[in-house]
Amino acid sequence: MKKLFGYLCLFLWTAPACAIHNPMFGDGAQNAISLYAAQGTGGGSLIKLIDAVRWDISPMTLVMAQYSQPMEIMRLPARMNVNVVQNTAYESNHGLSFFGVGVSWDVVVFHWHGLYVGGGIGPYMRDSHDRYVSSRLVFGEKVFIGARINDCWAAELFTLHFSNGDFTEINHGFNYIGLGMNYSF
């Protein structure tokens, strides 16, 4: 197991070293604006990011606007983001709506011919606390699969989780699945 982990680390450390550009941005682009829309997949743990069997479509919709710039993290293509988030809850979840702002960092761990796979994390401040998470400070974790359409446009399928990392007793968490469109310039 240690050997497998070592080979994986070596691959992740060296594989993108020969990358000419960041796959999340068009050639020569230094900025990107993105718009994401997502449906709630129920409260719960971080594992819901990748375990679709646990998804439970809930009456919540999220819209997120994002401004990004390219960067590298440990020689992997990455982006630094400023995010504005609006979660709108309805029906039985009416009291769970919130507005938030945050910063996040996304890193691509695999890319090939315009397709890329990665993850991200960052802190966010919300305008309220509620029965799901009893703090205004939350952390957003994201897993995404993206595709470059052309030099300016890319599309992403993503899952997103917001929680406070168990800093407070109430930390049910918010989970989403959605689509995003990115324009780089």
List keywords for this structure.
185 residues; Porin; 8-stranded antiparallel barrel
Which quaternary structure do these chains form?
single chain
Classify the helix fraction into a percent range.
under 10%
Q: What integer is the average pLDDT?
A: 88
How many domains comprise the coordinates? 1
User: Tell me, what is the CATH class?
Assistant: Mainly Beta
Task: Based on the coordinates given, report the CATH architecture.
Answer: Beta Barrel
Number of helices: 1
Strand percent estimate: over 45%
Based on DSSP secondary structure assignment, what is the total number of beta strands?
Answer: 8
Protein described:
This protein has 185 residues and is mainly beta. The protein has one domain (30-184): Porin (Beta Barrel). It contains one helix and eight strands. The chain has one helix at residues 2-14; strands spanning 32-40, 60-73, 76-89, 98-112, 115-126, 137-148, 153-163, 174-184. It has an eight-stranded antiparallel barrel with strand order 1-2-3-4-5-6-7-8. The chain is elongated, with a radius of gyration of 17 Å. The model is unreliable at 15-19 (pLDDT under 50).
